[in-house]
């Protein structure tokens, strides 16, 4: 499994280039199939990328009526909370796509919070049901989907591109080092005791991440360098969850020079 690495000069260029790359990826896919399934990420670089996409001249070239937006994880917080990944993504890009660029609101597949789900598990279950409704092959299993998930049914679309940020501890989505959620079967998992606030979250599992055609891990800053290097070298997913994020067709690491610096 080869991971491709692209290094940009700084975090600003990283976000701009990732935004352009994302819009081009959607355009490329739209030339051969529809709908297109895109998974968004929370975190600093992820939201900066969406803001850059909002300002891109490529934005209007996309047929947004044929795009579905999903999230790799969500912080289990009330609707509209400023710390929800959904709230930040809507403010940066998604609301404008719905209001002015023909993205149907029903194509925005946000993960429920406590406003409508009694627990992270309930939200995870509802999200899994939503994903299953768009699964590419209803009886598909992702055979190589991480240790515990091997052979479990993972009913999700074959995401055309799945964006992930990475924490300094090597987490991706809400899959943290040494956490039980790393072992979860199925497509989604409720997470408790996250070391990054808030403690309660909902995440795609490794099985769902690995169903994506293309996985892009986007990271900036020297505090990410050690875990980025470990993941790119194919480290143990228990210690470096980002090492388990691979796509079926491509795995791309998009870094700034600080995150790519040797340690
Ligand atoms: O809910 C979240 O916070 C995430 O989705 C998380 O996985 C994030 O992407 C990384 O922690 C990187 O975040 P930064 O880019 O802010 O370091």
Automatic annotation (TrEMBL):
GO terms for molecular function: 6-phosphogluconolactonase activity. GO terms for biological process: carbohydrate metabolic process; pentose-phosphate shunt. Its EC number is 3.1.1.31. Keywords: Hydrolase. CDD domains: 6PGL. Pathway: Carbohydrate degradation; pentose phosphate pathway; D-ribulose 5-phosphate from D-glucose 6-phosphate (oxidative stage): step 2/3. InterPro entries: 6-phosphogluconolactonase_DevB (IPR005900), 6PGL (IPR039104), Glc/Gal-6P_isomerase (IPR006148), NagB/RpiA_transferase-like (IPR037171). It holds the Pfam family Glucosamine_iso. Residues 10-253 form the Glucosamine/galactosamine-6-phosphate isomerase domain. It catalyses: 6-phospho-D-glucono-1,5-lactone + H2O = 6-phospho-D-gluconate + H(+). It is an enzyme of class 3 (hydrolase). NCBIfam families: pgl. Belongs to the glucosamine/galactosamine-6-phosphate isomerase family. 6-phosphogluconolactonase subfamily. Hydrolysis of 6-phosphogluconolactone to 6-phosphogluconate. This is 6-phosphogluconolactonase. It comes from Antribacter soli. The gene is pgl.
